[in-house]
Automatic annotation (TrEMBL):
Keywords: Hydrolase, Magnesium, Metal-binding. This is 3'(2'),5'-bisphosphate nucleotidase. The keyword Magnesium applies. It catalyses: adenosine 2',5'-bisphosphate + H2O = AMP + phosphate; adenosine 3',5'-bisphosphate + H2O = AMP + phosphate; 3'-phosphoadenylyl sulfate + H2O = adenosine 5'-phosphosulfate + phosphate. Its cofactor is Mg(2+). PROSITE patterns: IMP_1. Mg(2+) binds at E92, D164, I166, D167, D310. Belongs to the inositol monophosphatase superfamily. GO terms for molecular function: 3'(2'),5'-bisphosphate nucleotidase activity; metal ion binding. One of its GO terms (biological process) is sulfate assimilation.
Length: 372
């Protein structure tokens, strides 16, 4: 039976009967987050099928942003506000370009898409007993403000969410991998990570089989994969690899991660399998389920600072599946410095058995000394 809920997307303990209410830590955040990411996955998949050329902008850093990115951030932000109104959000996108007259056509399209997603009946795979039903349409001003609630500066204390509404926008535009990414941090420690991958095969051994899955992890509660088409949860544990049996998971874009440094590291480790190149944090989900043994993100030397929304959800997936995530010098990722990872230099994520050997190889390949 569907649990009646007062207001839209409102998730309070009052909304649950004692039989459906889970007492685990962050249970409400997990349920709301899964629903928001599912809705955003449905929104972005449908945008891809209808996207037209003038629905993509180029941002100041030359990276693309589409109507799908803005609409998905608006949708997730509205859902978070309804259930956790006090929580600040560090989101990738902001609405400045949409508030000016030149942004009118794009703005109207984004409002239409976000509202369609807000009022849609239960999306495929949502658990009816969660009681997270369709909401009411919002005004243009409310949705622009929802996007801009992602402007929080971050920091070391308190609760905060990160949203990357489309991670791997270039992959999204190519029709390849992308991910809808959400995380909750408390005092700069990731406690919940959710990554929705609409184009990812549910089973890597069946690349032509069913596509679309969500990865979710709560600190201390393991990492699970759920198909977008349903809600059967499979717990993931990273298998034990030896260094030479690894294969690397890397960015498609050579500007985001140095392919040549990764090749050198792979040859030092004796890796013979070719790298698996894939856009977005789908790589972290693949690592957690054992599709490759090593996520490598080696800096390209342009002084780029990694963004917290690009790594917080993925890092907890891998840790909860039994792996280790550090920067390329062995330093833990610091999510408490603001919107970026500050002085962290690249990312190395791998199983416990091989992580130290990989850091040694990185040191040999780059001449930098590991800090731990
Ligand atoms: N120069 C540079 N170096 C490192 N990283 C960068 C750089 N420029 C952008 N970005 C960020 O990369 C995000 C895309 O993730 P990936 O690199 O894993 O995927 S991809 O294969 O490159 O598309 C991408 O995330 P989205 O903007 O959400 O797509 C960016 O935040
Ligand atoms: Mg982007
Ligand atoms: Mg991103
Ligand atoms: Mg993005």
């Amino acid at each position: 039976m569907r649990i009646p809920v007062r207001g839209i997307f409102t998730l309070t303990t009052r909304s649950y009967s004692s039989t459906t209410m889970s007492t685990s830590q962050f249970a409400l955040e997990r349920q709301l987050g899964l629903s928001a990411v599912r809705r955003a996955c449905a929104l972005t998949s449908s945008v891809f099928n209808k996207l037209i050329k003038n629905e993509t902008l180029t941002k100041g850093d030359k990276s693309p942003v589409t109507v799908g990115d803005y609409a998905a951030q608006a949708l997730i932000s509205v859902m978070l506000k309804n259930s956790f109104p006090q929580d600040p959000i560090v989101g990738e996108e902001d609405a400045a370009e949409l508030r000016v007259e030149e942004g009118r056509v794009l703005r109207e399209r984004i409002i239409e898409l976000a509202n369609e997603a807000l009022v849609a009946p239960f999306v495929e795979g949502d658990k009816p007993e969660w009681g997270i039903g369709p909401g009411q349409a919002k005004t243009s001003a409310e949705l622009l403000d929802a996007i801009d609630r992602g402007n929080y500066d971050g920091g070391r204390t308190g609760r905060m969410w990160t949203i990357d509404p489309i991670d791997g926008t270039k992959g999204f535009l190519r029709g390849e991998q992308y991910a809808v990414c959400l995380s909750l941090l408390v005092d700069a420690r990731v406690q919940l990570g959710i990554i929705g991958c609409p184009n990812l095969p549910v089973d890597a051994t069946k690349p032509d089989g069913e596509r679309g899955c969500i990865f979710v992890a709560v600190r201390g509660q393991g990492c699970q994969q759920i198909p977008l088409s349903g809600y059967t949860e499979t717990t993931l544990r990273m298998p034990a690899f030896t260094p030479s049996s690894l294969n690397t998971l890397e960015s498609v874009e050579a500007l985001h991660s140095s392919h040549s440094t990764a090749d050198t590291i792979a040859s030092i480790l004796g890796i013979t399998r070719p790298p698996l190149r894939m856009d977005s944090q789908a790589k972290y989900g693949c690592l957690a389920r054992g599709d490759g043994g090593l996520y490598l993100r080696m800096p390209t030397g342009v002084g780029y600072r990694e963004k917290i929304w690009d790594h917080a959800p993925g890092a907890i997936l891998v840790e909860e599946a039994g792996g280790i995530v550090t920067d390329s010098r062995g330093v833990p990722l610091d999510f408490g410095l603001g919107r970026t990872l500050g002085e962290n230099f690249g990312v190395v994520a791998a199983g416990k058995e091989v992580h130290a050997a990989v850091l040694d190889a990185v040191q040999q390949a780059t001449g930098t000394k590991a800090k731990v």
